[in-house]
Fold this sequence. Notes:
Elements: E1 3-6, E2 9-12, E3 16-17, H1 23-36, E4 40-42, H2 50-60, E5 68-73, H3 82-94, E6 99-104, H4 113-125, E7 129-135, H5 139-148, E8 153-159, H6 167-175, E9 179-183, H7 195-204, H8 208-217, E10 222-223, H9 230-237, H10 246-253
Parallel strand pairs: 3-4, 4-5, 5-6, 6-7, 7-8, 8-9, 9-10
Antiparallel strand pairs: 1-2
The protein binds NADP nicotinamide-adenine-dinucleotide phosphate.
Amino acid sequence: MDVIESHGARIPNLGFGTMTLKEDLGAEMVDAALRLGYRHLDTAQMYGNEREVGEGLRRSGVKRDDVFVTTKVWFNRLGAGDLERSVDESLERLKLPFVDLLMIHWPNAQIPLAETIPALCKVKRAGLTKHIGVANFTVAMLDEAAKLASEPLAALQIEVHPYLDQSKILAAARRHGMAVVAYCPLARGKVPADEILQRIGRAHDKSPAQVALRWLEQQGIIPIPRTSKRERLAENYGSRDFTLSAAEMAEIDKLKRPGSRIVSPPQAPAWDS
Length: 273
Ligand SMILES: NC(=O)c1ccc[n+]([C@@H]2O[C@H](COP(=O)([O-])OP(=O)(O)OC[C@H]3O[C@@H](n4cnc5c(N)ncnc54)[C@H](OP(=O)(O)O)[C@@H]3O)[C@@H](O)[C@H]2O)c1
């Protein structure tokens, strides 16, 4: 699988998002994704499925070293001491000695970054994660986090899909040399119904979902689509073997429109991008 390199991390350029995939379905879909060729799994403390993700990984028989595993610390566990304890609990659920990428899931207005970022760096130095990153940070928070971090911030995870203008935060991530991981890359079901993406897809014998994922991949952004259906696992994986023209990329760029953010923060937002 192609990788995006960032501060020593080599992140497969397509991941499998696992939010909502729990119990038997969770382990089965992770196993199926890895057997199909996915090598990047995205979970989080908040998804309540770290056990299932670890179980699916073991069931697949794919070597641990060949899979890039991300988990995220929920916003209520960001205090010094508590962050470290929460990571120990995550690793216990995953039954892994370390993850490849540990992220702050959402900032917490009540806990200063000056406390959280050093705690995140400490967990990396202790060997519990190979790399660290943040999710759902604004440009200002990213700049502050980069100043506070004694270890490189390898990746930023944010909502990215054809309808949302993320140009400012994408530029900030690039400035900090961070890889960008796109959540909701299919705009939670809006992409498959899009007539423009359908038309572009027909020209390549591809689905609108494959077109939206390809549009991200061609920008060096790493999509992590989720599905509960095996046939869609294969469909989404098939986003990587065709090329959109510059004109098609530009046409998709024009789908951005105000009010397209899907995910709301667990606390009052402070978006500046
Ligand atoms: N950091 C954060 O704050 C954050 C927030 C949200 C999500 N995430 C991560 O990002 C991942 C992806 O985001 P998401 O799950 O919110 O949204 P998404 O991947 O954009 O959309 C998932 C939805 O699309 C459907 N789908 C998947 N493949 C499809 C295809 N080929 N054709 C048609 N429909 C398809 C799925 O339904 P079926 O199951 O029926 O296929 C599901 O309802 C999550 O699983 C999670 O790991 C992170």
